[in-house]
Amino acid sequence: MYVRKEITNKGGMDVEAPLVSVVIPAYNRPNTLQIAVDSVLEQTYPNIEIIICDDSTNHGVQEMLEPYLRSYPQIQYFKNEKNLFLGNWHKCFDLAKGEYINYLMDDDVFHKDKIKKMIYFYEQFDNITLVTSYRQTINEAGNGYRRFMLRSSSMKKPELWTEKYWLMRR
Predict the structure, then answer these.
(1) Which residues contact 151 (CB under 8 A, 6 or more apart)?
(2) Positions of E strands within 43-122
(3) 123-148 confidence digits (pLDDT tens)
(4) Which end of the chain is more exposed for a tag (fewer CB within 10 A), N or C?
């Protein structure tokens, strides 16, 4: 059974909000990770846990997170004793308690309504199994990288290329 939090919706009715686990595999990028974590904390969706598993070769990520860990009980941090590589992703997944899981890379940001909009589709439509969205990759200053234009002789006009993120139901 998954954890749900009772909230009051806009109409004044009490409803249950499923827990969403945002899992972040981290590696040596405390500056961009801080921006990524802030984008999760700014979400308009009310029931989120943040799981950060750190594969870093130094303590920069851990030091940056210390004030967050004191102020935000929904953040859980795990420093790996050795580098797990892809296993770090699996560790994040295994530690997540949410009914829904959303990966966030330590150099990306979420739009403030991302989780709320994605959960809406799961809750309103029974046949939905995967919801995707675009992501914005950032540099250490928090600025987004430019998107690439794809051109092909079969395309009538250029298309924007970007990577997608997904939210999955367990």
Answers:
(1) 158
(2) 48-54, 75-79, 100-103, 108-109
(3) 888 888 888 776 667 778 777 765 44
(4) N
